[in-house]
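Catalogue entry: protein

Sequence with per-residue C-alpha cells
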Amino acid sequence: MNERAVFAEVFRLGKASRPELARITGLSKPTVAVALSNLEDAGLLRQVGLRAGPAGRSALLYEARPEAGYVLAVDIGRAFVRTALANLVGDIVARKEEPSHGVRNRDLVAQLTRLADDLAGAAGIKRSDITLAVFGTPGIHDKTSGSLHLAPNLPGWEQRDSVARLADVAGATYVVENDADLAAIGEATYGLGRGVRHFVYVSIGTGTGMGIVIDGRLYRGFRGAAGEIGYLPVGDGDPLLDQPGTHQRGMFESVASAGALVATSRRLGMQDGLTAKDVLDAARAGDEAARRTVEREIDHLGRALAGVTAVLDPELVVLGGGVGGHAGDLLTGPLLERLGSLVALDPPRIEVSTLGTDAVLLGGLASGLTAARDLVLDRAGGLTRSGPR
C-alpha cells in the first residue's frame, strides 16, 4: 500500500522528492525512502537529479521509468484499424493505421497481431513486453459468452468466444471497450470534454454510437449498453417493417449513418457510386439534392439529440466519426437551431471533436495507462518482497 501510494504520487507530479512525497502521502520519511528504494530496485522509478531546498540542502528527485510498461491501443472499425503504442508515462512511441484486411475474426486478429509486432519492433521491444492491450470495438462485449453484441458491422464477432482470440494479439492481458465510450474518455482527457462534468460524445460514421460522461465519470449502464443510440426510434417510417434486416442496426442508425446518408442522396436524385464524403462535398458546393440530404440528416440527428437532452441534460455534445467529425461546417449551426426548437430549455453546446480519428485511440491509451500502472506495480510486488526469480 505504501509503494502504491508513492508510485501514484510520482506519476501525478511527474517528478517528486522524498520530503515532498512524505508531506503529500502522510507517510514518514523513512517509510517513503523504503518505498522509493523498492520501486527503484523493481525498475519502476529512477533518479533524475536534484532539487535545491532551504539552507542549501538538495533533495533527490524521482520519476517513473517510461520503459517500465507499454500500452497498446487498437481502434477496430469496419474499414480501418488504427493502432498506437505508448510507454508508461503516456508518450506514443509508435503508431500505424491501415485498411482492414477483413472483418472475419481470424483475418482481423492476424492483421492486428502483425501490427502489434510492427509497433513493438519500432519501439525496440518485443510484443510480449506489452503490458496491456485495449481494444475499441463497436457494440457490447459480453464477458460471459466472449462475444460482441450489437455490432453488425463486424459480422462473426457475435459468435461465442470470438473475442478471446484477441488474446493472441498482445498476450493474455487485454481489455475490450466500446469505441464510443473510449472516444468519450479521450475527449475527457485530451479534448473538448476536459473540465466538463456532463457531456456526450456522439459518433456518426459507418455506425452510430454515444459515450456518456456524467459527473465526470463514464456511464456504462446496467449491461454496458448505455449510449447505443442507433436503436433510438428516430427515422422515416418503421425500418423494422419497411426494410427487412435493418432492425439489426436500429432505426436511427438506418437513417443517420454514412451509408444512410448515401442512400438518402440516391433517393433524392444523386448518382450511384457516391460516398458520404462525396455527398457532403456536393452540399458544400451547393448541389440541391445533397443539400436536402444534409437537411434530413440534421432533422434525424436533432430529434435523437432532443431525446438525449431530455434524459441526460448534457452541457456539451461532441460530434465525431466519419460524418459527425468532418461535417461541422454543415451540421453544428443548423443542428443547434433544430435542437433548440425541440427542447424545453436552452440546448447544450454542440462542437466537433478536436481529436478527429484519434479519439478512440487516445481514450484507449488514457484508460489503459491507468490500468497498466497498477499491473506493473502488482507484478513488481514479488520482486520487492523476495528478489528476482
User: Anything to note?
Assistant: The longest helix spans residues 359-386. Confidence is low (pLDDT under 50) at residues 383-389.
